Amino acid sequence: MHELLQHNVHFARLAAEYHHLDTRIYEVEDGRHALDDLQLHSLKMKRVALKDEIAQLLRAHQGG
After folding, report:
1. pLDDT per residue over 12-58, tens digit each?
2. Could you give the CA distance from residue 10 to residue 62 in angstroms, rounded to a whole number?
3. Distance of CA 42 to CAs 14, 25, 36, Å?
4. Where are the beta strands (DSSP E) in 1-64?
5. What Pfam family does this protein match (any one) (predicted)?
């Protein structure tokens, strides 16, 4: 994963976006930020899509 972060701009962008969304979701869930349920659900769905794309890139990089 470290190699991909260093040498694959697309992977690094996806990882950064995932981290940002994950942090935002946790802040909403613990009450630090307000967001309606529909918006929160939308963020969670986007996070799942990013996670799937990241996993696909990792599998391709590992030859699987």
Report:
1. 999 999 999 999 999 999 999 999 999 999 999 999 999 999 999 99
2. 17
3. 17, 10, 10
4. none
5. DUF465
Let me know: does 57 contact 4? Beta carbons within 8 Å.
yes
Q: How many CB atoms lie within 10 A of CB 63?
A: 5
Q: Locate 19 and state its tokens.
A: 């981290």
CA distance 18 to 37: 19
Whole-prediction pTM = 0.86
47 and 8 Cβ atoms separated by less than 8 Å: no
Q: Which of 12, 34, 10, 14 is nearest to 24 (CA)?
A: 34
